[in-house]
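Q: Convert this sequence to structure tokens.
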Amino acid sequence: MVALRPLVKPKIIKKRTKKFIWHQSDRYVKIKHNWWKRRGIDNRVRRRFKGQILMPSIGYRSNKKTKHMLPSGFRKFLVHNVKELEVLLMCNKSYCAEIAHNVSSKNRKAIVERELLYPDLLKDKPECHEEG
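A:
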């Protein structure tokens, strides 16, 4: 059977892959790494001095056409049951399924069996552990 390919697969350009970190978070343990805009009057990051930590700005935004797109060209769709997988069959050229983490093994097996009729619909093939 032929593998499914996305309808369109534009080149995905990531303008920045590194995380934006908080100013001086590497110096102190009490300061978390997640980004927080500095608002001090003398702050060198806010004033954009050369060699300082970069601030997030609108220029780092992803292209709307490739935002949330996987390298395969598909977008993820979270599936909790077989019924949601049926909905995905109508737009299987642009979305692929990902089984939610809180789905039971019984429902997981049912989703995988349903997916066997349409290969390449699931993003990751799970290994269903048999109990015996």
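The chain has a mean pLDDT of 87.
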